[in-house]
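Re: your question about Peptidase family M48

S., sorry for the slow reply, the queue was backed up all week. Below is exactly what I fed in.
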Amino acid sequence: MATNFFQQQDSARRKTFQLVVYFVLAILILIALVYGLLVALSMYGAHEPVSWWQPDMLLLAAPAVGILVGGASALKVAQLASGGQAVALMLAVRRVPGTTTDARQKRLLNVVEEMALAAGVPVPPVYVLPETGINAFAAGYAPGDAVVAVSQGCLDYLTRDELQGVVAHEFSHILNGDMRLNIRLIGLIFGIMALSIIGRSPSSCRSVRRVHCTARRKNWRVPAGLPTPTARDRRTGGYTPCSGFLIADDPA
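Result:
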Protein backbone atom coordinates (compact mmCIF):
# COMPACT_ATOMS: atom_id res chain seq x y z
CA MET A 1 0.00 0.00 0.00
CA ALA A 2 2.86 2.39 0.89
CA THR A 3 4.57 1.63 -2.41
CA ASN A 4 1.38 2.45 -4.30
CA PHE A 5 1.08 5.73 -2.39
CA PHE A 6 4.61 6.85 -3.28
CA GLN A 7 4.12 5.75 -6.89
CA GLN A 8 0.96 7.83 -7.11
CA GLN A 9 2.80 10.77 -5.53
CA ASP A 10 5.58 10.54 -8.13
CA SER A 11 2.99 10.26 -10.90
CA ALA A 12 1.20 13.38 -9.61
CA ARG A 13 4.50 15.32 -9.60
CA ARG A 14 5.23 14.25 -13.18
CA LYS A 15 1.78 15.32 -14.32
CA THR A 16 2.18 18.68 -12.59
CA PHE A 17 5.50 19.21 -14.36
CA GLN A 18 3.86 18.29 -17.67
CA LEU A 19 1.12 20.86 -17.08
CA VAL A 20 3.73 23.56 -16.44
CA VAL A 21 5.55 22.61 -19.66
CA TYR A 22 2.28 22.68 -21.63
CA PHE A 23 1.45 26.12 -20.23
CA VAL A 24 4.86 27.50 -21.25
CA LEU A 25 4.47 25.96 -24.71
CA ALA A 26 1.03 27.53 -25.05
CA ILE A 27 2.48 30.97 -24.26
CA LEU A 28 5.30 30.48 -26.78
CA ILE A 29 2.80 29.39 -29.45
CA LEU A 30 0.68 32.48 -28.79
CA ILE A 31 3.75 34.70 -29.13
CA ALA A 32 4.69 32.96 -32.40
CA LEU A 33 1.17 33.38 -33.80
CA VAL A 34 0.98 37.07 -32.90
CA TYR A 35 4.48 37.64 -34.29
CA GLY A 36 3.58 35.84 -37.53
CA LEU A 37 0.42 37.93 -37.87
CA LEU A 38 2.36 41.17 -37.38
CA VAL A 39 4.96 40.17 -39.98
CA ALA A 40 2.25 39.11 -42.44
CA LEU A 41 0.51 42.46 -42.01
CA SER A 42 3.78 44.28 -42.62
CA MET A 43 4.27 42.28 -45.83
CA TYR A 44 0.81 43.17 -47.10
CA GLY A 45 1.10 46.00 -49.59
CA ALA A 46 4.87 46.39 -49.05
CA HIS A 47 6.74 47.66 -52.11
CA GLU A 48 9.93 45.81 -51.13
CA PRO A 49 10.47 42.23 -49.88
CA VAL A 50 10.08 41.94 -46.10
CA SER A 51 12.07 39.40 -44.09
CA TRP A 52 10.26 37.02 -41.77
CA TRP A 53 12.85 37.79 -39.09
CA GLN A 54 11.84 41.08 -37.47
CA PRO A 55 13.40 41.45 -33.99
CA ASP A 56 11.49 44.67 -33.31
CA MET A 57 8.16 42.94 -33.92
CA LEU A 58 9.20 40.01 -31.74
CA LEU A 59 10.02 42.44 -28.94
CA LEU A 60 6.55 43.91 -29.45
CA ALA A 61 4.67 40.59 -29.63
CA ALA A 62 6.26 38.89 -26.60
CA PRO A 63 5.48 41.60 -24.01
CA ALA A 64 2.03 42.18 -25.53
CA VAL A 65 1.09 38.51 -25.16
CA GLY A 66 2.59 38.38 -21.68
CA ILE A 67 0.65 41.44 -20.54
CA LEU A 68 -2.58 40.15 -22.09
CA VAL A 69 -2.31 36.65 -20.60
CA GLY A 70 -1.12 37.92 -17.22
CA GLY A 71 -3.74 40.66 -17.06
CA ALA A 72 -6.61 38.37 -18.09
CA SER A 73 -5.47 35.71 -15.59
CA ALA A 74 -5.24 38.26 -12.78
CA LEU A 75 -8.70 39.60 -13.69
CA LYS A 76 -10.28 36.14 -13.56
CA VAL A 77 -8.59 35.26 -10.26
CA ALA A 78 -9.80 38.59 -8.84
CA GLN A 79 -13.34 37.78 -9.98
CA LEU A 80 -13.08 34.49 -8.07
CA ALA A 81 -11.58 36.15 -4.98
CA SER A 82 -14.72 35.48 -2.94
CA GLY A 83 -13.90 31.77 -3.07
CA GLY A 84 -16.19 28.87 -3.73
CA GLN A 85 -19.35 30.97 -4.00
CA ALA A 86 -17.92 32.75 -7.06
CA VAL A 87 -17.10 29.43 -8.76
CA ALA A 88 -20.60 28.14 -7.98
CA LEU A 89 -22.19 31.22 -9.55
CA MET A 90 -19.96 30.86 -12.60
CA LEU A 91 -21.19 27.28 -13.12
CA ALA A 92 -24.87 28.18 -12.58
CA VAL A 93 -25.43 25.48 -9.96
CA ARG A 94 -28.38 25.66 -7.56
CA ARG A 95 -27.95 25.73 -3.80
CA VAL A 96 -29.61 23.12 -1.61
CA PRO A 97 -31.50 24.95 1.17
CA GLY A 98 -31.42 23.60 4.69
CA THR A 99 -35.22 23.50 4.68
CA THR A 100 -35.48 21.27 1.60
CA THR A 101 -38.17 18.59 1.66
CA ASP A 102 -36.58 16.51 -1.10
CA ALA A 103 -35.41 13.19 0.40
CA ARG A 104 -32.32 12.93 -1.82
CA GLN A 105 -31.22 16.47 -1.10
CA LYS A 106 -31.75 15.89 2.62
CA ARG A 107 -29.54 12.82 2.42
CA LEU A 108 -26.85 14.89 0.67
CA LEU A 109 -26.98 17.58 3.37
CA ASN A 110 -26.68 14.95 6.10
CA VAL A 111 -23.68 13.35 4.40
CA VAL A 112 -21.92 16.71 3.98
CA GLU A 113 -22.54 17.59 7.64
CA GLU A 114 -21.14 14.22 8.74
CA MET A 115 -18.01 14.66 6.62
CA ALA A 116 -17.48 18.23 7.87
CA LEU A 117 -17.79 17.06 11.48
CA ALA A 118 -15.35 14.20 10.89
CA ALA A 119 -12.84 16.52 9.15
CA GLY A 120 -13.17 19.28 11.74
CA VAL A 121 -14.06 22.01 9.22
CA PRO A 122 -17.11 24.29 8.90
CA VAL A 123 -20.06 22.82 7.04
CA PRO A 124 -19.78 24.23 3.49
CA PRO A 125 -22.73 25.38 1.37
CA VAL A 126 -24.01 22.52 -0.79
CA TYR A 127 -24.96 22.85 -4.45
CA VAL A 128 -26.38 20.56 -7.13
CA LEU A 129 -25.11 20.49 -10.71
CA PRO A 130 -28.01 20.14 -13.19
CA GLU A 131 -26.54 17.17 -15.07
CA THR A 132 -27.32 13.47 -15.14
CA GLY A 133 -23.70 12.24 -15.07
CA ILE A 134 -21.80 11.29 -11.92
CA ASN A 135 -19.72 14.33 -11.02
CA ALA A 136 -18.75 16.52 -8.07
CA PHE A 137 -16.37 19.31 -7.14
CA ALA A 138 -15.16 21.40 -4.21
CA ALA A 139 -14.13 25.02 -4.69
CA GLY A 140 -12.70 27.80 -2.53
CA TYR A 141 -9.48 29.20 -1.12
CA ALA A 142 -9.84 27.82 2.41
CA PRO A 143 -12.21 25.58 4.39
CA GLY A 144 -14.04 28.70 5.59
CA ASP A 145 -15.13 29.77 2.09
CA ALA A 146 -15.39 26.35 0.45
CA VAL A 147 -18.44 24.94 -1.31
CA VAL A 148 -19.28 21.38 -2.29
CA ALA A 149 -21.35 20.51 -5.35
CA VAL A 150 -22.54 17.18 -6.70
CA SER A 151 -24.42 16.41 -9.88
CA GLN A 152 -28.06 15.43 -9.99
CA GLY A 153 -26.86 12.07 -11.26
CA CYS A 154 -25.11 11.44 -7.93
CA LEU A 155 -28.38 12.01 -6.10
CA ASP A 156 -30.35 9.84 -8.52
CA TYR A 157 -28.07 6.83 -8.95
CA LEU A 158 -25.71 6.53 -5.95
CA THR A 159 -26.43 4.77 -2.69
CA ARG A 160 -25.77 6.59 0.57
CA ASP A 161 -22.41 4.86 1.01
CA GLU A 162 -21.39 5.71 -2.56
CA LEU A 163 -22.47 9.32 -2.11
CA GLN A 164 -20.50 9.44 1.13
CA GLY A 165 -17.40 8.27 -0.73
CA VAL A 166 -17.80 10.99 -3.37
CA VAL A 167 -18.28 13.71 -0.75
CA ALA A 168 -15.33 12.41 1.30
CA HIS A 169 -13.15 12.69 -1.80
CA GLU A 170 -14.18 16.33 -2.23
CA PHE A 171 -13.41 17.03 1.43
CA SER A 172 -9.90 15.69 0.82
CA HIS A 173 -9.47 18.49 -1.73
CA ILE A 174 -10.63 21.01 0.88
CA LEU A 175 -8.18 19.73 3.50
CA ASN A 176 -5.21 19.40 1.10
CA GLY A 177 -5.56 22.90 -0.37
CA ASP A 178 -6.10 21.63 -3.93
CA MET A 179 -8.89 24.18 -4.42
CA ARG A 180 -6.51 27.16 -4.32
CA LEU A 181 -4.45 25.59 -7.10
CA ASN A 182 -7.59 24.90 -9.14
CA ILE A 183 -8.76 28.52 -8.92
CA ARG A 184 -5.33 29.72 -10.07
CA LEU A 185 -5.48 27.24 -12.94
CA ILE A 186 -8.87 28.65 -13.94
CA GLY A 187 -7.23 32.07 -14.12
CA LEU A 188 -4.29 30.83 -16.20
CA ILE A 189 -6.53 28.99 -18.65
CA PHE A 190 -8.70 32.08 -19.02
CA GLY A 191 -5.57 34.11 -19.74
CA ILE A 192 -4.52 31.72 -22.52
CA MET A 193 -8.03 31.84 -23.99
CA ALA A 194 -8.19 35.66 -23.87
CA LEU A 195 -6.93 36.11 -27.44
CA SER A 196 -9.49 33.60 -28.71
CA ILE A 197 -12.30 35.34 -26.81
CA ILE A 198 -11.27 38.73 -28.20
CA GLY A 199 -11.03 37.31 -31.73
CA ARG A 200 -14.48 35.71 -31.57
CA SER A 201 -16.28 38.95 -30.63
CA PRO A 202 -16.15 40.71 -34.03
CA SER A 203 -16.55 37.45 -35.98
CA SER A 204 -19.75 36.61 -34.10
CA CYS A 205 -21.16 40.01 -34.97
CA ARG A 206 -20.20 39.52 -38.63
CA SER A 207 -22.20 36.29 -38.53
CA VAL A 208 -25.27 38.27 -37.42
CA ARG A 209 -25.02 40.41 -40.54
CA ARG A 210 -24.81 37.22 -42.64
CA VAL A 211 -27.92 35.92 -40.84
CA HIS A 212 -29.85 39.03 -41.83
CA CYS A 213 -28.80 38.62 -45.46
CA THR A 214 -29.85 34.95 -45.44
CA ALA A 215 -33.14 35.83 -43.76
CA ARG A 216 -33.98 38.36 -46.47
CA ARG A 217 -33.18 35.86 -49.23
CA LYS A 218 -35.22 33.02 -47.66
CA ASN A 219 -38.07 35.22 -46.43
CA TRP A 220 -37.43 34.30 -42.79
CA ARG A 221 -38.42 36.36 -39.78
CA VAL A 222 -35.69 37.79 -37.52
CA PRO A 223 -36.72 38.42 -33.90
CA ALA A 224 -36.62 41.95 -32.53
CA GLY A 225 -33.82 40.98 -30.13
CA LEU A 226 -31.36 40.43 -32.98
CA PRO A 227 -29.66 43.72 -33.91
CA THR A 228 -30.17 44.99 -37.44
CA PRO A 229 -27.07 46.30 -39.26
CA THR A 230 -27.37 50.02 -39.80
CA ALA A 231 -26.35 51.93 -42.92
CA ARG A 232 -23.21 52.96 -41.07
CA ASP A 233 -22.42 49.31 -40.27
CA ARG A 234 -22.74 48.35 -43.93
CA ARG A 235 -20.71 51.34 -45.06
CA THR A 236 -17.87 51.25 -42.51
CA GLY A 237 -17.89 47.68 -41.28
CA GLY A 238 -18.82 48.75 -37.74
CA TYR A 239 -20.03 46.03 -35.42
CA THR A 240 -22.85 45.98 -32.91
CA PRO A 241 -23.01 43.74 -29.81
CA CYS A 242 -25.22 40.86 -30.83
CA SER A 243 -27.30 38.00 -29.52
CA GLY A 244 -30.52 36.38 -30.61
CA PHE A 245 -32.19 33.57 -32.55
CA LEU A 246 -33.42 33.07 -36.07
CA ILE A 247 -37.00 31.83 -36.42
CA ALA A 248 -38.27 30.39 -39.70
CA ASP A 249 -41.88 31.05 -40.59
CA ASP A 250 -43.92 28.18 -41.99
CA PRO A 251 -44.19 28.62 -45.77
CA ALA A 252 -47.67 29.65 -46.85
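Confidence is low (pLDDT under 50) at residues 214-252. Residues 209-247 form one domain.

Happy to talk it through on Thursday.
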